[in-house]
Design goal:
Layout lengths: L2 E3 L6 E3 L1 E4 L9 H13 L4 E3 L15 H12 L8 E6 L22 H15 L4 E6 L25 H14 L2 E7 L3 H14 L6 E5 L11 H8 L2 E5 L21 H5 L9 H16 L4 H10 L4 E6 L4 H8 L8 H13 L5
Helix pairs in contact: 1-2, 1-10, 2-3, 3-4, 8-11
Length: 351
């Protein structure tokens, strides 16, 4: 397993990060515990979760994933120190009114009270005294994230200032409840603004940015890759297999029973377009020609990018988990990378 420094810290995190968002909906508590056991035993010391997990989010499963992690910590108290645990507070949204109905007419926001309450509740579910990396799940302001591509500038919709958000995170750091802070689904401007405010006001410096990145979706490279390389705010890449699409299992109209797309495809249509299928078939062909598993090729590509700190893998089965964890020390020959770039130039950025 390879390890990278987490931002400006002295913490080494595994290049493979254990994603958890299926636990409590697609995976049982026992299966989640089995995954945590295997991951830690095989060098995966970085785990990622969020208050709203499992996904798709709904009231009856809100916080369930954190609870599953919490029962594992309860049963394995001596191993808490071996895990770098990341969680998230939900950004601005009205559809999550069940999460904090007493605040802002049920809208989740990134103001001081919302952040402090969310963190305290996560700590209770996780059964731990601290969270290593506390992330803002998505921005307070109106900007491009979750597949939005046409930016509309609307300062009237900025909501609570970034500085208020950062000062609330500073309170959590000073209290010892959080060690480091980070962002997710952010833009290049957003990352630089968080860094500017941290330097200007002596507030916590963000250590990472968690955004989608995979062979079908490489828009991170347009502006954020340079930001990561120059500032040290590295990428925690999520959806490295494009929700399983890059494994090739959905090609030719296939829809395996029990798969994520079979269950929840209506919520996540972004990678099920004809264009995505055509491009995926080309990547699967490259992997086949070089004797590689397509999923392992896709994960390894993400792992070895110079701006990647860690690759958040998600697994429904233990076989999937083992396949992903094995890429933690894999690399790709230049011939493979050249072939990947040829396909990418034919289908840049989009899916």
């Amino acid at each position: 397993m390879r390890y990278n420094k987490l931002g400006h810290t002295d913490i080494d995190v595994s290049v493979i990060c254990l994603g958890t968002m299926t636990w409590g909906q697609q995976n049982t508590e026992a299966e989640g515990h089995e995954q945590m056991d295997y991951a830690l035993d095989n060098g995966v010391n970085f785990w990622d979760t969020a208050e709203l997990y499992s996904v798709p989010p709904k009231a009856e499963t809100y916080g369930r994933t954190e609870e599953i992690i919490g029962t594992w910590f309860e049963r394995n108290p001596a191993r808490r120190k071996d895990v770098i645990l990341a969680s998230k507070v939900a950004g601005r949204a009205s559809r999550l009114s069940y999460m904090r109905p007493h605040l802002h007419d049920g809208e989740t926001r990134l103001d001081r009270q919302s952040i402090l309450e969310a963190c305290d509740n996560s700590l209770k579910r996780l059964k731990t005294d601290y969270i290593d990396v506390y992330q803002l799940h998505w921005p307070e302001r109106q900007t491009n994230y979750f597949d939005a591509v046409n930016y509309t500038h609307n300062p009237d919709a900025d909501g609570f200032p970034i500085e208020e958000t950062l000062r609330a995170l500073d309170e959590l750091v000073k209290s010892g409840k959080v060690r480091y802070v980070a962002v997710s689904n952010e833009s290049a401007w957003g990352v630089m603004e968080f860094l500017r405010l941290a330097d200007q006001a002596g507030l916590p410096r963000i250590v990472s940015i968690q955004n989608p990145y995979n062979l079908l979706k490489r828009d991170y490279e347009v502006g954020l890759a340079e930001v990561s390389c120059r500032t040290g705010v590295g990428l925690l890449a999520y959806s490295p297999l494009a929700m399983g699409v890059l494994s090739g299992k959905y090609l030719n109209g296939a829809m395996p029973e029990g798969s994520r797309m079979a269950l929840f495809g209506q919520y996540f249509p972004r990678y099920l377009t004809e264009r995505a299928a055509r491009t995926t078939a080309k990547y699967v062909d490259i992997a086949t020609r070089y004797g590689l598993d397509p999923a392992q090729m896709a994960n390894t590509f993400v792992n070895i990018r110079p701006f990647t700190t860690s690759n958040i893998i998600g697994a429904r089965t233990m076989d999937q988990l083992k396949l992903a964890v094995a890429t933690g020390d894999m690399s790709l020959d230049q011939e493979i990378l050249d072939d990947i770039e040829t396909v990418h130039k034919e289908t840049p950025i989009g899916y």
